[in-house]
Amino acid sequence: MRPWIAAGAVLLALGLGTATAADAPPAQPQASSASVHELLVATHATTMMQQVMQQMAQQLDAMVKQRLPCLAPGEVSSVLTTPQATRQMTDLVVPIYQRNFTEQDVRELLTFYRSPLGQKMLEVQPAIMRESMLAGEQFGRQQFTQRISQLETTGKLNAEGQCPVSPAAKPAAGG
Description:
Radius of gyration: 27 Å
Helix content: 55-70%
Distance between the termini: 54 Å
């Protein structure tokens, strides 16, 4: 199998090697930090980051309360709920957008999200995500139930949905 992979890599390299710099499309300018920040605000991504970090802080508080009861609520999690934390998280996300979008892409996204349709998308997207997650959970439960039923039918699981006791696992008589 490896000779085929190597041969394919060589052919691919030869094919790519025939292209010249003149054949390559002109490089698009990377999105600026300022335009990405503008997009994150326009799409409410920074607000969502704050909400997610608030939820993470609550989960962290519960964990700290259980494991480190000597600490007051918020003593550890407060680092996640400051404006500085949101700025730092945003600063981590900006380069990701810059690697994936050109300046023109970001400008077009801003135009879309500022349009009536873009505003509607931002308005209904949370509900769509919630409903989609619920539909996915329901689908997963249905698939799981069907598969367990199939495994029970074939004898891989017993009627209680558990592994049947194998002869080797049965306790020895008189022992």
